[in-house]
Amino acid sequence: AQKVTQAQTEISVVEKEDVTLDCVYETRDTTYYLFWYKQPPSGELVFLIRRNSFDEQNEISGRYSWNFQKSTSSFNFTITASQVVDSAVYFCALSESGGYQKVTFGTGTKLQVIP
Amino acid sequence: DTGVSQNPRHKITKRGQNVTFRCDPISEHNRLYWYRQTLGQGPEFLTYFQNEAQLEKSRLLSDRFSAERPKGSFSTLEIQRTEQGDSAMYLCASSPTLAGAPGELFFGEGSRLTVL
Question: Residues B37-60: pLDDT tens digits?
């Protein structure tokens, strides 16, 4: 069974600080996909990134970067120089290949960026 | 370009009544998902369609819940004999097929159910 754990329930940082959101996953599949989604206060979930299990290269997109380590089953998300607009709930998610590919979400980390 | 549309946005009902939610996905997406989200929790998977076929249904979904996607376009989620524990945000998402791999999920704004 697939499972995603986000141990950090809430994080507060001061604007311009860097922050890392942790994600640990469990799966028996060798092929799977990992995602991060953002849910701003307005409520609608927004896709940020998708990675497959064969691609462990870190990815950077502007102030966002993702660190995928299969050895520790982690897929962490770092925001550099945080801004108030980054305040949201962030969800890590996992989808196993094969089967019917449901996407399982973690419980989320609420990030508050204080001006 | 329209996104995923859900109706109604809010529904207040009395315990024991039936409710139905509708989801119109992005037109070219053949995958459609229903999730439930309660306050402070992540979306919980309920069910998933590939075109009109319901391919997986969560054990969370009791026999009071039924979902359909009759022509592979819009979908409905019906809850019969509602209970207070059914109060939640019901989220619909659609996704294109990318060579068999799961793609990005596009979420609607959700339908909030309050059972009194």
Answer: 998 899 999 998 989 999 888 887
